[in-house]
Amino acid sequence: MSRPIIAGYEWRQRVRAIASPPLFPVGCTLTGQVRASASSAEVLATVSTATGTITRVDDDTVELRLPAADSAAWRLREVVCDLVRTDTTPDLHCGFRLRIRVVQPVTRGLP
After folding, report:
1. Taking the CB of residue 92, how many other CB atoms lie within 10 A of it?
2. Which residues pair with 98 in a beta bridge?
3. Domain map of the chain by residue range?
4. Among 16, 48, 67, 92, which has the minimal tally of Cβ within 10 Å of its Cβ?
5. Is 55 exposed, middle or buried (0-12, 13-18, 19+ CB in 10 A)?
């Protein structure tokens, strides 16, 4: 179970996926899109190793980071995200989808 995203605050979540061969070997590159639903055309945010919003921890674990500004205007209850390895040909879907609750904070709008 993932931690909820508190809209307007930075979110970090480690994701562990055990596979053979490992999903996250040294040098892998990953991209994921955050949407309201899998069928939604609108991309709410993108995470990737290229932008530093996905960090490889080890062969089985990555950390996702969503900057506060990315979720500040969200009024959703839930978002979905999956990951794709982009260092393979063709690109390789990692085979899982995250459903992440979105919570509206009580404390917001601080300077």
Report:
1. 15
2. 81
3. 5-103
4. 16
5. middle
Helix (H) or strand (E) holding 69: helix 68-71
Of 23, 44, 36, 37, nearest in space to 88 by CA = 23
Q: Rounded to 5, what percent of the chain is helix, strand, coil?
A: 5, 45, 50
Instruction: Note whether 85 and 73 are within 8 A (CB).
Output: no
Instruction: Find residue 62's DSSP bridge partners.
Output: 15, 56
pLDDT tens digits for 43-58? Answer: 999 999 999 999 999 9
Task: Take residue 30 and report the two structure tokens written for it.
Answer: 């990953």
Question: Could you give the CA distance from residue 7 to residue 5 in angstroms, rounded to a whole number?
Answer: 6
Asked if 65 and 11 count as a contact pair (C-beta separation under 8 A), the reply is yes
CATH of 5-103, one of 3.40.50.170, 2.60.40.10, 3.40.50.12780, 3.60.15.10: 2.60.40.10
Strand 45-48, strand 30-35: pairing: antiparallel
What token pair was written down for 71? 């979720």
Asked whether the predicted pLDDT for residue 42 surpasses 90, the reply is: yes
